[in-house]
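Fold this sequence, please.
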Amino acid sequence: MRLTELCRKNEFVQAEKELYDANVVHIETDGTAFRGIDDVMQKEVDFLKQLKSPPVTQVSEPLVAGNYFTIRLKMQCDHNQRGKIDLDELLVYKVADGKIIYLICYVG
């Protein structure tokens, strides 16, 4: 799957450019919503700029059901403001017309 391939290489912005719909909705673990590809990509760019070095990332194989799929994302990184971060998230995606239109993130 192209998404997991790009995420495993820490190419998150490229994944969004290629795979997300222009009107994508992204809900973060704290409930913050980002609407539209520009908002979503800016959030990603801002986060990545705050890292002292590339993150160590693990991405599971996807589990697919109809127009939905989920992956587990584990990431260890050193953030300029928040210090060391260990993320363990379940990401649930909805797809329509070959593009990701919705993403919600759950903390593990």
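The longest strand covers residues 83-96. The chain has a mean pLDDT of 97.
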